[in-house]
Structure prediction request, 235 residues.
Amino acid sequence: MKTQKKIALLLGMFLAVSGISGCMQTDEEKLESQLEAYFDENWESQIEAYLDKNMDKYLNKYFGIDEAALENNGETPDSAQAVSLKTFTAQTLDGGTFAQEDIKSKDVTVMNFWTTSCGPCIAEMPDLAAFQKALPENVQLVTVCLDAIWGAEESAKKILQDSAYEGITLVSGDGDFANICNNIQYTPTTIFIDAEGNMVGDAIIGGQPNLSESFLEAVNAILKSGGKAEISLAS
Prediction:
């Protein structure tokens, strides 16, 4: 796999396992500065060497896939929308399971990906909690803590508790869920899924100044395009 593709697909995983703090930045200069501080000016070649040595181990351990699964017929996926969520089983932070039937029961599932080391993710968690509680029965919000599987379960639980979040949080899984997690390049990232498991609308990347308004607008656009009634949030 080419270095550029490895960095694009797996740098988020690398940052978590190597101990570099913070989420992956959309500001390229800021990210490069952080990497150069951890390595040196030859950080690209050092990341390539690190991934060559460790990639198979982490992918096999945490996602049950091998490096070939990332090749995607020689093209780098642009985002999590390269895959769907139709066949999978995921584990929740509290020890339960979440699967396709849980998607099928809702018109729209809002899925937010975050990590315990991502400042913007933690900052928006109270807003996510409020949004989740205000949703009607036909729409659900689910969060995915990407680094819980690396020993951050207790930190994730504390962040959620402090934010008064009472919804579902996924931490690991197989099938399409593993593919989606593998395609997430930045946190927070929020995607929208219809009842058939198709990703619909545009992903929302980064923290939102008015989260409820942004998410509600996205959900209603999806419902309207599918011929369903728009929703409002409970006060």
Remarks:
- DSSP finds eight helices and seven strands in the chain.
- Residues 43-63 form the longest helix (21 residues).
- The radius of gyration is 18 Å.
- Residues 1-10, 12-22, 58-82 have pLDDT under 50 and may be disordered.
